[in-house]
């Protein structure tokens, strides 16, 4: 008999924990198969319920799909998933017909839906926009359709944390459990002492994924050994590096994985209260985490005397009101205490005196998502991936001027060149890769000749680079290095808390100088140019002092983009200063626009559209640009129908 | 009862930890913060008004000016930046005659620069209230604004 | 005890001490900007960084605890380079107007730049074009000169208990702000001036009327009367490199005459009039529970505080004018009349330790017929500037006497300078009222102890009068709450806004260091010890004043003359 107990997973957690995966009773296996959509009797259409998908229009798609199904009275479910990680190809939808593997389509828009579904329901696969099919041995594959894991983007990735992102329904706790979720946590509180858990994590060699590279297990042990009545486990979900979105994808794509990681971590340090400090802008993540927490309570995975172990745990959410510096742990704690998010001097470390002076462990989302896997598979398993110093995988969020943009999870130690050239397909077609910037606003500019570096903490440190949170920005010849460094320094200047002098004044001075050299000034003579260059070189000394004396990591690392750029792209700075030229044509103020009198018909459109009123003339006669007023915005050139506007 | 008082009622027996959640709730309710809110929240939590104000000005989320009917967010994340979002922003400034964090005098538009809207795949991106516009070119901005003005004669 | 090695010498430190504390105890100097001994460390300015062996970055001495066998270098090349660079960073956007700055020669930033041998501008930055906030009657804020050390923020919160200001915004736009960025005068600031004493640069400065003083001084038809407080007498020495605590009264008299003041008075007789008035008010209220306790209202910053923060305490206060305003009233009224000077021909100047006195003088209650009772208020610091301005060599002057009728004949009024002193003087008089005889030992020791809250009682028939002196409004806040809740069992309460009392007032010489404070206090107590007249009621000069005025303490007339009005003031607090 298949029905050998309750058909609700909630009631069968004991069975799941005591049994062995793969050897469960048929009844349980059947629920698993159903919940994980391994076996379905009705067609399921999956749309992306995630931020990049939404912005690209997945909500409209869902509407169109629902209308299609209703109009034709088709028996099908519409389900939601997180992101597959191919941001440049959003919105992505996938369709699973009963008995067939699931197929994925990219860049779908509303108008595609009826044709696409028409064909599919007639069991023919339209080839346009087809990405591939999901490998599933239990089903018939579609002929001549590549499996996702064969595509270059996925084939060279090593997806552990992102394995189910874009595949499963993120808010379904049953689907998570069906795919082996929460087993690690329930095993932990049943079978392991807190010392054993800490030891396992330390043994695994897991290092903090937010950039600190500190041994997570060591951090836990300090907190565990500090005597206190109340301890706190804090999950740092204040992901605010521009161009970093791995944590958001983890929370939107598989929130229960994070909740499970937090549960185990809280147990290991003896905390009965866990807090997720999350950016308030991450509305979708907040919604999914709230739902997940509610569900976990319902299932007895959170709350009082969890699984009769005597362990209590509550997880609450704090919505960070927006400050980059709150990613720093002491600033984050200050913010939770209702204060300005200003970092504090360490020592004392939060593991000894943190939130309301209680021992507090702050781990980031990606770090915590690793925990269930390490506990479930053992530290030895974890150490088999990655390098000796940096075991495991790391997720990178790739953006900029690359062919693919999105999320890439690879083993630590993977060659950067391979990641850039093979997984994400290098720069946009027809463009030349100029550099790769890794690590967010305090990351480093890596030139093509350094691209063979293995991606891991130790190799990066040796070269003077940092991994940061793992944002990768691909730059091509259309990107100006000086402008980008200025962008990062301006960002840091605005995001510095302002408390300590080197960071507050240092970031400001650097961005001021970069601003000056990218701006049009009344003729810069040779003397001024040399002065500027001298000041620029002086900045290297300043950067050293910022590193040496800033209160927190933000100020210490802030000059990184500048330092690495000056090392590898010095000639671009020199061109800006001495030649007053931006080779990428980004620093528009350095351009001089003019109107070709031969081509201008005097149609007046440029003069009307010029935001600076810098174009003068009489109708039907050639117009002129007053160069002192022109800010180089280029609108005139865009609007001119006669290609009369040029610049040099 | 006043809207602020009603929010404060939901936060009984709380300490300073609740300051940010209260400010968020008040801002959600009335759209921005003002001196009445600062004073009432300070009284409620026994905090000096300067501390409440100092905290609120620290974080991006809190505004002290009412937002426009159409709140424009221009993404200046790194990808949008290298895809020239600063030029979009400058155009908005010029066309609306306001700066970041300001509201036009007729209360129609306000501009905010945000660090990342999360659509790096379709940069550059802006959002107006809950609508997203992606792969924007600077020439499109006038049209977008005109469309909105047409809807609100 | 922990042994650490500093610059290759072994020194001893206490366990739990910070490196900075250990260094100071061993006489090793490292520069600091944001730290002040009485405030919690923040580690913001990074001036105190030192090199610790085994640490890959420099560590701030102010917040880093000592460890056994720690090896520290306080002045290595790396450390000096870092400190110098950070000072250069501050200077890079600092207004280059040191020569015009109030703190020229007494500026911590200037001194650091000098000490660290900053000789050229290596980094140039944009000037911050902040507007100067001149709204307050006592304090001018120039945010462009602010180095954001946060001392004023912490002193305003931790010592003054007001928290009128905090850090606002962040990063390159970080600024010290009031609530809603209101001008200071409309904020909850109580003008105590504690921030003025703590500011390392000229970002906070006296609102000065020094220049306006020239006009009345030069005008032969105008008689200029000046009074100075006893605090000025014992603190002016610091401004001229004379031994701290030296009694400068005789010198001050001759200086003031040389500058051109026509009448030179001392304030403490006003204080003794205040003692007489408030003793009478106490007697009136004694035994009536609804007005218990009586709260003294002599401190102008405390009055501001009650008006803005605790209006429910107003009914406990006896609104006796502050001593200098008592004299101020008498100069423009009775004294001018006696000497047949028309009121538009007399100018009244106050030299004081108190910055709130400036605000006080501008209050409408202190105007009679649209003429202020006191026209100009100078702080001790401004007084020193005035002396230099007039090129007077203070070291070569002979002592002279104060003019009649406002002379310092007794010591009770002088006690007002120190926390607990007003109470001590008042209790002496009350003891006499109740017991018909003088206190056996006029020295009330408990009121002379250190600390922000000092309790004392005197025996009276049928019980005792319990008194408490509070200094530093940070200490008053809690007690004010208890009084409001009627949970505190005191009969009479003195509150001084500034920690340690008026002697540490916001108008005193900078820096206000604790050692100097002790010396000044000692001079005051010594004067009391050596004085023949130690009570207000026993001071014939004071009694003589009442006689000449033709009314008695506590009478209707005296109330008209010596009392003022205080009322609730609504501010964002």
Briefly characterize the structure.
Chain A is α/β, with parallel strands linked by helices and 648 residues long.
Description:
The complex is a heterotrimer of chains A (648), B (153) and C (573). Chain A has 648 residues and is of the alpha/beta class. Chain A folds into five domains: 36-147, Glutaredoxin (3-Layer(aba) Sandwich), CATH 3.40.30.10; 173-383, Rossmann fold; 394-475, Ubiquitin-like (UB roll) (Roll); 481-579, NADH-ubiquinone oxidoreductase 51kDa subunit, iron-sulphur binding domain (de novo design (two linked rop proteins)); 591-647, Alpha-Beta Plaits (2-Layer Sandwich). Chain A is built from 26 helices and 20 strands. In chain A, strand 7, helix 13 (283-298) and strand 8 (314-320) form a beta-alpha-beta unit. Chain A is globular. The model of chain A has no long low-confidence stretch (mean pLDDT 91). In chain B, 45% of the residues lie in helices and 12% in strands. Chain B has helices at residues 3-9, 19-30, 35-45, 49-58, 78-82, 85-96, 140-151, and strands at 70-75, 109-114, 126-128, 131-133. In chain B, helix 1 packs antiparallel against helix 2 and helix 3 crosses helix 4. The longest helix of chain B is centred in the first third of the chain and has 12 residues, at 19-30. Among the domains of chain C are: 2-75, Ubiquitin-like (UB roll) (Roll); 89-206, Alpha-Beta Plaits; 284-321 and 411-512 and 523-562, Fe-only Hydrogenase (Larger Subunit), Chain L, domain 3 (3-Layer(aba) Sandwich), CATH 3.40.950.10. Chain C contains 18 helices and 19 strands. In chain C, helix 9 packs across helix 11 and helix 9 (268-285) packs across helix 14. Chains A and B meet through helix 3, strand 8, strand 10, strand 16 and helix 19 of A and helix 2, helix 4, helix 5 and helix 6 of B.
